[in-house]
Amino acid sequence: VTVVRSIGLIVRPRAISGHLTAATRTGIMPLFGGYKASKLKPQLKMAVTRFQIAENKKSALMKQQIRDIARLLAEDPPKEEKARIRAEGLIRDDYMVEAYEILQLSCELLSERIQLITHVKECPPDLVESISTIIWASAIVDIPELIEIRKQFRYKFGKTFEEEAMMNVGGVINERVAVKLSVQPPSAYLVQTYLEKIADEHE
Known about the structure:
This protein has helices at about 15-25, 35-75, 80-110, 115-120, 130-135, 145-155, 160-165, 175-180, 190-200, and strands spanning about 1-5, 10. It has about 200 residues and is an all-alpha fold.
């Protein structure tokens, strides 16, 4: 026992050490926040709405992109190089919409399982992929609610769980989402396939 005489405080090193060890192990400092189902569920529902809005905007943009590509291919001579560049952008948006759809379904699932999430200490095995994918995607997609969702899962399951999700340790991320949100450009074959399909549909 150490007595800090200036303020009359008795410090018990063992108790403090145990408290800090628990906080370090989970990556949670209770003084600054903690898991709250009342915060997580509304954020999941808001994310679902945000994904739906983003999907609709992307879909409308893609329709315009398709018309622009068709016009470039119909010119005499066809402006194939410009059309090819536009097609890459179209493919990226197409991939993004597909990833959004999967992430939206994941948020809906987690919202329905909020009671289970709240009452367990470890992440349920059948939710590891959905939760890890949401955490991983929070740093990539422009859906602000995912930041708070990621924070709540860090409070609930610990910083190690969050870090493993961010690094995709053990391949926990949904493979389709990982592919669709990859920074790698689409293959030349895929771009050509899109161009041919657009040309056929706008003859």
